[in-house]
Structure prediction request, 797 residues.
Amino acid sequence: MNLGYLFGYQLAGRAGLRLQRWRSEWRHARTAPDPDRALNPPLRSTIRMREMMSLHYLEGRHVAGVRPVAWVTSGAPTEILKSMGYFLVYPENHAALCGARRHAEGLAVAAESAGYSRDICSYARTDLGSVLSGTTPVGSLPPPDLLLCSTNICQTVLYWYRVLADHFGCPLVLVDTPFLYEDEAAPHQVDFVRRQLEEIVPIAERVARREFSEEELGRVIGRAKRASELWLEILNRARHRPAPMTAFDGFINLGPIVDLRGDRQTVEFYEGMLAELDDRIDRGIGAVRHERYRVLWDNLPIWYRIGPFSRWLAERGVNIVASTYTHAWGELAEMMDADRPFEAMARVYLHPILNRSTGHKLAAMRRMVADFEIDGVILHSDRSCKPYSLGQIDQRDRLVNQVGIPALLLEADHNDPRSFAEEQAMVRMEAFVEMMSA
Amino acid sequence: MASITLPTRREAIAEARRQGRRIAAVLPYHYPRALLRAHGFHPVEVWGPPGVPRDEGGRHFQSYTCDIVVRATSFLMGGGLDPADVILIPHTCDALQGMGSVVADFLQPSQPVLTLYLPRSDRPSDRRYLVEELRRLSGRLASITGHEATAADWDEAFAAEEAADLALASLYAERSRLAVTDRGFYTAVRSREFLTAEDFVAMAAGLPRGEAPGEGVGLTLSGIVAEPLDLFDRINDAGGRVVSDDLACGARRIYPPSDAADPFERIAGRLIASPPDPTRGSPIEERVRMLADLMRSTGAAGLIVFDVPFCEPELFDVPLLRQHLGEAGYPVLHVEAELGGSLPHQVLTRIEAFVETLR
Ligand code: SF4
Ligand code: SF4
Prediction:
């Protein structure tokens, strides 16, 4: 065993982060709600989530040579790799973290200096900038032994991972998921994805020099399913009035369901978060102190503005209670099946909202408008994410003219603040809030 | 040098109709021509078109959407695709995915909207999937026409379309012996986008042979579409000569032959074996190797990557093409231009400066 891994991560690192969590929890327990603030104190669970994610990145600093490392896309079928002991790095999640900590712009500039266009996804630019400059707010990322890319969120990830494959010189495994223009996947589409999932196994075995076990895969899928169910329940708790959480809480606490799906601690974490929300509901505590308007958010968050945005909205009595984005990691839980792992995974990984038609997304938004008693919709027109954004103009039009609710198309970029005209955006947001009150 | 006279798109459509064919409007860029023909359809491709303003398409797609998608949507909404009996939108990229979905779900033109998801690799599983995907498309076409393609239909379609594909490949192979300018050559190549297979073969056979005009520095052109055609004149004026290409509207569609007996296997095999291409997920290393070989064999001194703005599949590869081809001794210039009427001055200046450095 590598000494850095043992002391830096398993002993000192773990203990240090636990201590930090205890201190934060102690402070949180002593924070009384401030009547002058529009938001109630944040969820206590977030402290635990921070510890889990910090620990994950800390392990990443020491893991090279201890566990095989795979870099994977956020929609990739990671259960197979997880069951074989791979340490997983999610460049998108890492990029989001850089965005939230305001490091993304500098990293994007580093990628642009190397010739990457400002017109490509800002997650990709953040990640490539980090790879090329060797800079990251988490210290360091372990280089990949394997790249796993699934096109079920976009084709962009394939262009991006081809660049990573060239840079790192490691195998790139593709799980190509035909886009679903129709409501359900056709049998040949499911077969195609199932075969590709089966093809991952020998490559992953060769790279890891470990044997695959279907039994272990079943266990990982079981835990991933449970965590996804809990995640969906958590998000659906926001149907209560007042909602005990905001979609921003959802964005912030998304890390474990994306990065640590399939781990036991993730199930425990979301059980704890659900209990905390139920306690809030019992005590009538809303995330926004005076919730007047309930809003649905479409697309990725604007990571570098999450805090100011949630405060600005809360001051106007607005709670963003749901988002199509966070739901994406929960709504497929029912398709997961540990008894037919490959077939079930093929279906699961074909059906994320981003791999489905613009009409399907509109239908999902309509359902959410009804289920969450929504007063208005903000569609973040994300310059960096074309697959999520194309279609929003017509979706907005239908929401306004057929559903009859205000809907705002908000131009921004999820990770690059240079593509966000904030002043102009806030004027439009103000008008949107006024429309809801009309 | 003789100028090339070609039928217009309208005339080509009229000719196809006269032959009893329906019209399929097809968005870029890989698709099964023989399959369309076996079902009685003649494909006419829609690359923008360049002259159409973005305004109407801009009511459905954001400003950061590429010109091909926005202008094609304008064209559709303005009635430009009315002569078509079906619209086929292959899943080439996220932008065309968005267009296919928005057109089918929201714009709902009077014609059926067909889609085709092309796999992004060349593994046996990709081929098997593509065979089934082609069968699905065939089923859709048969339900539209009420007629299943017979063995005779397939034979006739393969004979015609593969002859035209061969004619296209021969044009490239014979480039240095064709007495046509670069502009003339690409006018000929791109007439495959709308001519019937027979007319294309006849046109290719009729091109004047002799010495290719022009003395300039050899260049390879990469990207999606070389529009406007004026580009070639400007390159020539600057002292350059386009000796080969890696264009989506050009050499990326030189499909190798296949002798598979099953029609779907045959088409899938050919599509999957097309030259390395970012939209098909080819590893960058393969693309670099192909480009270096191509440039060496055609005597190109540099590569111009000519892109439509916001074209992610192309943009991601540019830095690595520049790096690896640079290491192999081939400088790379990357320029972007909208599909408008004329080339921006800045683009022209950069091309001129690039050619100058290669002299
Ligand atoms: S294009 Fe969109 S879905 Fe794809 S990596 Fe970027 S943000 Fe994610
Ligand atoms: S120009 Fe690029 S982004 Fe646009 S349709 Fe063509 S391949 Fe897609």
Notes: The pocket of iron/sulfur cluster (ligand 2) is lined by residues B 28, 66, 68-69, 92-93, 95-96, 224, 279, 308, 311, 313 (CB under 6 Å). Strands of chain B lie at 22-26, 41-45, 86-91, 113-117, 217-223, 240-247, 302-307, 332-336.
